[in-house]
Amino acid sequence: MTVIIKKQTKSAGLIRTIEKIAGVDLSVCYQCQKCSGGCPAVPHVQTTPSEIVRRLQLGAGDELLDSDLIWMCLSCKTCYARCPMGINVCAVMDALRALALEKDAARPDGDMPRFNREFLGTVRRFGRSYDIGMIMAYKLGTGKLMDDAEKFPAMLKKGKMALLPPSGTDRKTVKRIFAKTAPNKRTGK
């Protein structure tokens, strides 16, 4: 597959912005591709983690914000664990996601930013993820209230979802984490 990189004439592309937001140094990547070899999202995307890093190194611009991987990244940190140079590729994906939201770049089918927002909202409120609360908020926001409704009874029966919000969590610590990150405009809030 031929990849066209539109080099920014004014700057070095996105790399400096991404490095600053993510707190990484992408110049140390020597393209061993261990990040891509272990990534569980790779079979489902067109762009691999190593390709994203290489394109940044070569001066890619805003066209990188349209990559499907930045929305499909699971943030499982397998790439980070496998990287011999200790590059946190998850942080790079988070930074790209934040910039894509900021610049209103193309998004994949569905509404992943809304899903992320609702997920974090339940964590903020309850100290942990509350599946039913998150799903209800997401469905109300998208207007697709009955999509996948037939799966709910089976998940409830198997104990995959709890009817009540989680208890016993350290909500003060979670509240402190959210307060500490609130001034960061790139969190996608």
Task: For this entry, give a set of tags.
single chain, 189 residues, mainly alpha, Fumarate Reductase Iron-sulfur Protein, Chain B, domain 2, 2 domains, 10 helices, globular
CATH-scheme architecture of the largest domain: Orthogonal Bundle
- The biggest beta sheet, please? none
Could you say which overall geometry the principal axes of the C-alpha atoms support? globular
Give the C-level CATH assignment of the largest domain: Mainly Alpha
What's the helix-strand series?
HHHHHHHHHH
CATH topology of the largest domain: Fumarate Reductase Iron-sulfur Protein, Chain B, domain 2
Total helical segments: 10
By CATH, the superfamily of the largest domain comes out as Alpha-helical ferredoxin
State the helicity in percent bands: 40-55%
What report would you give on this structure?
47% of the residues lie in helices and 0% in strands. With 189 residues, the protein is mostly helical. It folds into 2 domains: 15-102, Alpha-helical ferredoxin (Fumarate Reductase Iron-sulfur Protein, Chain B, domain 2, Orthogonal Bundle), CATH 1.10.1060; 112-180, no CATH class. The protein is built from 10 helices and no strands. The radius of gyration is 19 Å and the shape is globular.
